[in-house]
Amino acid sequence: MNVIVLGAGLVGGPMAIDLNRDEKFEVTVADYSNDALNSIKAKCPDLSVIHKDLSNPEDVTALVSNYDLVVNAVPGFMGFETAKAIINAGKNCACIAFYEEDPFELDQLAKDKNVTMIMDCGVYPGMGSALIMSETRKLDKVESVLTYVGGLPEIREWPSEYKAVFSPIDVIEEYIRPARYIENGFEVIRPALSDAEYIYFPKIGTLEAFNTDGLRTLAKTIDAPNMKEKTLRYPGHIEKMAVLRELGFFSKEKSIKVNGEKISPLEITAQVLFPNWKLNQGESDITIFQSVIEGLKDGKKIRYTIDMYDKYCPKTDVISMARTTGYTATLAIRMIANDLYNHKGISPPEYMGKYPECIDYMQKGLRDRGVNWEVKEEEI
Questions:
Q1: Residue 80: pLDDT band by 50, 70, 90 thresholds?
Q2: How far apart are CA 63 and CA 198, in angstroms?
Q3: Which of 13, 44, 103, 208 has the smallest number of Cβ neighbours within 10 A?
Q4: Which residues contact 321 (CB under 8 A, 6 or more apart)?
């Protein structure tokens, strides 16, 4: 089967290499960056590469029409239109792009085109969402779901004490996009970076958590009166990002004139900030996830705790965010290829959690790649 990966970045590149290990796949990677393509080609000469601007949806539709399966790994701001372009080509897809639009707007189109589109197929939303669905289905009544997730450099380095382990533009979205969560049965909208709290994790230490818009489709697919997601960073990060945001450095409005052309403050910020955020070759990152689910089963109060901790793998030179996000997506595309999962339409990752055989397949595949998700049940 011919598979094309759209995007050869920190996550897209390792996904292509992982898929290339499967004898049934012929893998191609498309990206606008020659540097990214040359880097991935040097690591895996068997891969085919295409230098392509993926910003035009019509070009994407034409490109992917020549392939059996597609992995969408473009930045979030391109994600929705790229997903739509893939569906228009009638191609099944696993998508890791974290876009702002409602993915269910594409559901009818995907059904009309007989397409299986697994979206938000990463850590969380992603495998974490699938496991949350799997565990909540064991309860007679779900009372609350509280999730913490973050990707960080293992070593804190002043001044930012942060490195972008996925598209930096998508990181900024976490700081400016209003956060939605469910409280006492109602949707609540709060500013990103709000409701700060400190949490201790044994393998890392104390981290700070803040509201982000990561609940996504779980707000619709799981019936619970209280659900919230928070992003984790090293202490002090919230204040730094809040100051930049409130001063306008993250604004997308083209309000600054430079050499006769108007540009946005975010474009300038990207040029100054993102080089400091770059995760250099060989630098170690970590990914941490915890979700606490509480509810009733057989008249008893039950708590499920889902944990995942992962680090950069020096043996394969793959960062943790690519391992935890990318391998989730490559296993999902294998499930589609093997007809283990074939729901037509838009599939948020929690749909996979409805099927024990899918959870088992994903769990085993991730364990084989050194990514371990653990679930603990206790009566409270």
A1: very high
A2: 47
A3: 44
A4: 10, 11, 123, 151, 165, 166, 285, 287
Q: 294 forms bridges with which residues in the sheet?
A: 144, 303
Cα dist from 273 to 11, 47, 59, 353, 363, whole Å: 20, 32, 31, 38, 37
Helix (H, G, I), strand (E, B) or coil at 50: strand
Contact 200, 206 (CB under 8 A): yes
165 plus 297 within the same structural domain: yes
Give the distance between the most distant pair of CA atoms in the chain: 69
Over the stretch 220-271, which tens digit does the pLDDT of each residue have? 999 999 999 999 999 999 999 999 999 999 999 999 988 889 999 999 998 8
Cα separation, 114 vs 136, in Å, equals 29
Q: Are residues 119 and 131 in the same domain?
A: no
Domain region containing 71:
2-124+320-377
Both ends of the chain: CA-CA distance in Å? 49
Rg (CA), the chain: 20
Nearest to 20, CA basis, from 71, 64, 63, 62: 71
Residue with tokens 């070009």: 59
Residue 218 CA to chain centroid, in angstroms?
A: 14
Q: Which amino acid is at 104?
A: F
Cα 52–Cα 87–Cα 134 angle in degrees, nearest 5:
115
Q: How far apart are CA 240 and CA 75, in angstroms?
A: 24
